[in-house]
Amino acid sequence: AIKQPELIWFNGNLVHWHDAKVHVLSHAIHYGSSVFEGIRCYETNDGLAIFRLRDHVKRLFDSAKIYRMELPFTLESLEQACRDVITENRLTASYIRPVAFRGYNSIGVMPFDNPVEVAVAAFEWGAYLGEDSLAQGVDVGVSSWNRSAPNTIPTGAKAGGNYLSSQLVVEEARRHGYAEGIALDTQGYISEGSGENIFLLRNGKLYTPPATAAILPGLTRDSIITLAEAQGISVVETNIAREALYLADEIFMTGTAAEIVPVRSVDGQIIGAGCRGPVTEQLQSLFFGLFDGTTPDEWGWLERIYLK
Length: 308
Ligand code: PMP
Fold this sequence. Notes:
Layout: E1 7-10, E2 13-16, H1 27-31, E3 34-36, E4 39-44, E5 47-51, H2 53-66, H3 75-88, E6 94-102, E7 116-123, H4 133-136, E8 138-146, H5 163-175, E9 180-184, E10 190-193, E11 197-202, E12 205-208, H6 219-230, E13 235-237, H7 242-247, E14 250-255, E15 259-266, E16 269-270, H8 278-292, E17 302-304
Parallel strand pairs: 8-9, 8-15, 12-13
Antiparallel strand pairs: 1-2, 1-7, 3-6, 4-5, 4-6, 5-17, 6-7, 9-10, 11-12, 11-14, 14-15, 15-16
């Protein structure tokens, strides 16, 4: 359960947590018409900072554009809402969840008859795949469910409806005793986890499905590609066959909630030495080093926030 802060930003105002309510006939509840983001705020050596705030809010607008959903707020005002839910709730390290959705007016499928509502919540959220996941790694399985085919439900939008696919993937994975499932695309290539992108290392090179594949092009994925390349580690964005997972020297998954999670087995096959590999550990250190100051933020990824 969420440890509830006091306030949620809802359609332009800060309201009490329990007052941030919607009608049961809201369009989004029936037809999945929401777009959302997941953003982390870190405690750094230099105060609180939101990681890649601008890029996340831009992606929210991109997701909305795909669905021709006009957000009744500017990018700047939603960035400010993200900062406000941290400062007004006196939160420290936390997870920020902006969501825009079609509200209540008519019950037809046609989306435009309903008002667009926007909320931003923030709360504490620890390691998504478990406290030990970052150091110990997790066991995963290839899902029997495929990711949506191109030109069906676009995986490039972070839309509520996409997470029906993710729910099938993660529920099946847990039922089989895995922490997470890896979905293949409709051609049989690797796509992503239910809430993470995936990388594998083989003979010193990193491989990950291309941004044009059936994936959400994650910002953590992008950050890891940037950090790896800055260290001279080459990253190949290409289609990856299922069996390449079993032959990898290392595998890890990336996401805002999950962060950088080593994978120690896939479908019961041990990956590498069956524990976090050295390159995965190096990339974790570089990533988390952004927050303790050991990795210089050359890219302007840290959006500092100042407590009032
Ligand atoms: N794929 C899916 C399906 C996701 O839900 C997420 C989490 N937002 C990711 C990938 C990783 O994206 P990011 O690194 O931007 O959080």
